[in-house]
Amino acid sequence: MVRKVVILARGLGTRMQKEDQSVVLDEQQTQAARKGLKALIPLANGRVFLDYLLSSVADAGYSEACLVVAPEHEELRRRYQEEIPLRRLKITFAVQEKPLGTANAVAAAEEFAGDDDFIMINSDNYYPVAALTGLRELKGAGVALFDQDTMLTRSNIAAERIKAFAVGLVGSDGRLVRILEKPTAEVLSQLRRPLWLSMNCWRFRPSIFEACRRIDLSPRGEYEITDAVQYAIDRLGEEFRTVLVREPVFDMTSRSDIPSMAARLADVPVVL
């Protein structure tokens, strides 16, 4: 079974940096938020948000993690190379020199992945262990998709954001057909229910690196992992199986997420 996970941790954190006078934070949380370091937001018991995510990765059976970071992210390196004892995970780093999108970030981890399958997730989402385990137990490439109704009722993400998320189209054989990015209300109204949302929770084979190299820039000037996936399906003959999950994903995007996330994770044990 797959043992490696790539975690995208280079994000600029612009929404986290935005001041919000309605949110009461302690000094450490405020300092981390000002830097946009979502993964290093302190929550409880000396733990930061990324500690909880990494612990859930280990709970799901993974043993090696690669954090894709910016060249200047020395705080992340210091924490996991010098400050935190690691019992269950081996943590390494890959550098994405410029913020050129998720496919470019994945490409930065090619040396780490080698010839092995791996999963890829965001550093500012807290995924259910069931999704991570489901991907680990697949044979070949795949994606975890999340029920929109569950996300609307049980996650901490605003409904207007959830309704704008990418939707995975699943064939009758359980394989991914296409990811629809930012579908319009008209398109959504025509899709079969339930709607299955993509939260950037993938299992990749090494062929994804060729796809990442071959795609063009998106209209917003980035190399998008969804474009690489579609290239792999259409041009490389890759099949992506789906893990359909009726559990929520929690998000650490803005300062308003910090108090609720701290409360939600307060009793969750962390073992790295």
From TrEMBL:
Pfam families tied to this protein: NTP_transferase
Gene Ontology terms, MF aspect: glucose-1-phosphate thymidylyltransferase activity
Documented EC number(s): 2.7.7.24
Residue intervals of the Nucleotidyl transferase domain: 35-235
Gene3D superfamilies cross-referenced by the UniProt entry: Spore Coat Polysaccharide Biosynthesis Protein SpsA, Chain A (3.90.550.10)
Assigned keywords, A-Z: Nucleotidyltransferase, Transferase
Family matches, as PANTHER family: N-ACETYLMURAMATE ALPHA-1-PHOSPHATE URIDYLYLTRANSFERASE, NUCLEOTIDYL TRANSFERASE
Protein name: Glucose-1-phosphate thymidylyltransferase
Species per Swiss-Prot/TrEMBL record: Thermogutta terrifontis
